TrEMBL record, chain A:
Protein source organism: Streptomyces inhibens
Lineage: Bacteria, Bacillati, Actinomycetota, Actinomycetes, Kitasatosporales
InterPro entries: Tscrpt_reg_PadR_C (IPR018309), Tscrpt_reg_PadR_N (IPR005149), WH-like_DNA-bd_sf (IPR036388), WH_DNA-bd_sf (IPR036390)
Domain of life: Bacteria
Stored SUPFAM superfamilies: Winged helix' DNA-binding domain
Transcription regulator PadR N-terminal domain mapped to chain residues: 5-78
Gene3D superfamilies assigned to the protein according to its UniProt record, in alphabetical order: 6.10.140.190, Winged helix-like DNA-binding domain superfamily/Winged helix DNA-binding domain
Domain Transcription regulator PadR C-terminal: 91-168
This protein's name: PadR family transcriptional regulator
Signal peptide coordinates: none
TrEMBL record, chain B:
Presence of the UniProt keyword 4Fe-4S in the record: no
A Pfam family reported for this protein in Swiss-Prot or TrEMBL: ABC_tran
Protein name in the entry: ABC transporter ATP-binding protein
Domain ABC transporter: start-end pairs: 11-250
Length: 168, 253
């Protein structure tokens, strides 16, 4: 969450709650919402490392709020984030590790593992469909996020099928 | 079926076996002992790799193919010993089938393709016309009545096939890859239609490769090498329904 928060601050200073809302508005309800506490902790860390700077603003009727702005170093960190390519191929997959190691432990049957994993993926797919149905139609970013997750799941399911064909 | 008190499963199969014996080729054990029970109003998806025997199974359940052994009950009636003619009547009145490759009559108009099964089932021409118009409207095909299937897009043909299968309000809809050749928008469309009919109580058995379609069902059967390897009820009994979502949607950073 560190880098997304930093990226949001590029367009102007904001306080913690505003950042939480900006993130929610951008990504919709499918994205697991960070709680305010997590946001403040992250902002505290970012400030300590000099990537953002905070300033208390007095409010007449409420406690002070802390407004953060991005620093030069923060800006460079964001640029570097966008510069670097993302996402390695899925060669580290915890499920696959279990599948490969199952014969060694003798505790779990490989086909049982695959079936269990398939149920899990299908239920996740179902949850995603529900989220998509409930999401604001005009929030294209949120819909794309869900669609991407679904396509990944479809690939995961196809791959499970391959595993099953080979191991059956 | 037009019985006073429908009860029990709409479909039950026990020990279904089907081996294809192509001339001059090796026998293919397409369905190797399938037990199945489908309740009224259920929406069941069957998934599995190409060649697993899904279409063969669906053909057995619709009486288009005969099992080598095993028993089949539809709405409480044992049908595996039915003659060709009795099966045809059963299908006309109670089973709607969407084939993997549409099977529309190419030299008939869209309207005739949909009305034909209604007429065969004994509906009056007027009733058939009314039902057809209603369905085509609902499936977004109004205005296409006079086209022949060749003049339609793949997605439209698929919807005509769905209309044809549904025109007699079957107690059971068997659909084999009803969105097989469609892109993701077309698939969503078919899915929306199936879900709508399901909500009105339509019992559906859907064969699909598409996990999104499968996950719309209440129950997903995994079919491998002629056998059921898993039979999962979706939705219920999960303690943290959103946990999986969080896993897939994790952002970096
Ligand atoms: N009429 C037939 N004669 C001979 N073999 C057949 C016949 N129909 C199907 N088969 C064989 O039976 C096996 C199962 O075929 P089936 O069409 O049921 O698979 P499927 O699961 O529907 O596959 P797909 O997902 O590709 O549609 C395949 O090996 C196929 O070649
Ligand atoms: Mg098939």
């Amino acid at each position: 969450m560190r880098l997304p928060l930093l990226a949001l601050l590029v367009s102007g200073p904001a306080h913690g709650y505003e950042l939480k809302q900006a993130l929610e508005n951008l990504l919709g309800s499918a994205y697991p919402q960070p709680n305010v506490g997590q946001i403040y902790v992250t902002l505290g860390r970012l400030e300590k490392t000099g990537l953002i700077a905070g300033e208390d603003v007095e409010q007449s009727d409420r406690p002070n709020k802390r407004i953060y702005r991005i620093t030069e170093a923060g800006r460079e960190t964001v640029d570097a984030w966008f510069e670097e390519s993302t996402g390695e191929p899925r060669v580290r997959d915890e499920f696959f590790m279990k599948l490969a190691l199952a014969p060694h432990t003798g505790t779990a049957n490989q086909i049982t593992l695959i079936n269990k994993q398939r149920r899990h993926y299908l239920n996740t797919m179902r949850d995603l469909s529900k989220l998509a149905a409930g999401e604001d139609r005009d929030n294209r970013v949120a819909h794309l996020l869900i669609e991407g997750a679904m396509l990944h799941l479809q690939a995961d399911l196809d791959w499970l099928e391959r595993c099953q064909e080979e191991l059956e | 079926m037009n019985r006073d008190e429908p009860s029990g499963p709409i479909l039950r199969a026990a020990g279904l076996v089907k081996t294809h014996r192509p001339e001059g080729g090796a026998p293919v054990h397409a369905v190797r002992g399938v037990d199945l029970r489908i309740e009224r109003g259920e929406f069941v998806a069957v998934t599995g790799p190409s060649g697993a025997g899904k279409s063969t199974l669906l053909h057995l359940l619709g009486g288009l193919d005969r099992p080598d052994s095993g028993s089949l009950w539809i709405d409480g009636r044992q049908v595996d010993s039915f003659s060709e003619a009795r099966w045809a009547v059963l299908r006309r009145n109670h089973i709607g089938i969407v084939f993997q490759f549409f099977n529309l009559v190419s030299n008939l108009s869209v309207a005739d393709n949909v009305e034909l099964p209604a007429l065969l089932a004994g509906r009056s021409p007027r009733q058939a016309r009314t039902d057809r118009a209603e369905l085509l409207e609902e499936l977004g095909l109004a205005g296409k009545e006079n086209c022949t299937p060749g003049e339609l897009s793949g997605g439209e043909q698929q919807r005509v096939a769905l209309a044809r299968a549904l025109v007699n309000s079957p107690s059971l809809l068997l659909a084999d890859e009803p969105a097989g050749s469609l892109d993701s928008k077309g698939t969503r469309e078919v899915l929306r239609l199936l879900a709508r009919f399901h909500q009105r109580g339509q019992t559906i058995l859907l064969v699909t490769h598409d996990a999104r379609m499968a996950s719309a069902a209440d129950r997903v059967i995994s079919f491998f090498d002629g056998q059921v390897v898993d039979d999962a009820h979706l939705g219920g009994g999960r303690s943290r329904p959103e946990a999986g979502v969080a896993d897939v949607l994790k952002l970096k950073g």
